[in-house]
C-alpha cells in the first residue's frame, strides 16, 4: 500500500508513530480497525432484537407457566380426543433403552 501524506496529515502520522513506538504498518492496521468499528452500525443485543416480540401477543397471564395445560386443551379440542402433553419423553432424557 502506498500513501502520500503531506502537511498536517504527515505531522499527525509522525506524532502517532512517536507516541506509540510501533511501525507504520501497526499504526495503519490500528487506524483501519478503529475506522471500521466506527463506521459499522451498532450490533443489537438480544434484548433489543426481541423488543418487538416479547409481551407483544395476547393470551392468558400465566401462559409461560401453564403452557402444557393450554396446549393439551387446544389439541384435545382440535383432535376431538383426550390429549395430554407430557413431560420430556424418555427418549430425550437418555432414559430410553437402546435396541440391541
Entry keywords:
single chain; 100 residues; mainly alpha; rod-shaped; 5 helices
Distance between termini?
A: 65 Å
Q: What string, H for helix and E for strand, traces the elements in order? A: HHHHH
Structural class: mainly alpha
Number of helices: 5
Q: Please summarize the sheet with the most strands.
A: none
How many distinct beta strands?
A: 0
Mean pLDDT across every amino acid position: 80
The shape, in one word, is rod-shaped
Strand content: under 5%
Determine Rg (CA atoms, Å): 31 Å
Write a short abstract of this structure:
The protein is mainly α and 100 residues long. The protein has helices spanning 7-20, 24-39, 46-50, 63-79, 90-93.
SSE layout and pairing:
Blueprint: H1 7-20, H2 24-39, H3 46-50, H4 63-79, H5 90-93
Would you give an account of this structure?
- The chain is mainly α and 100 residues long.
- It contains five helices and no strands.
- The longest helix is centred in the C-terminal third of the chain and has 17 residues, at 63-79.
- It is rod-shaped.
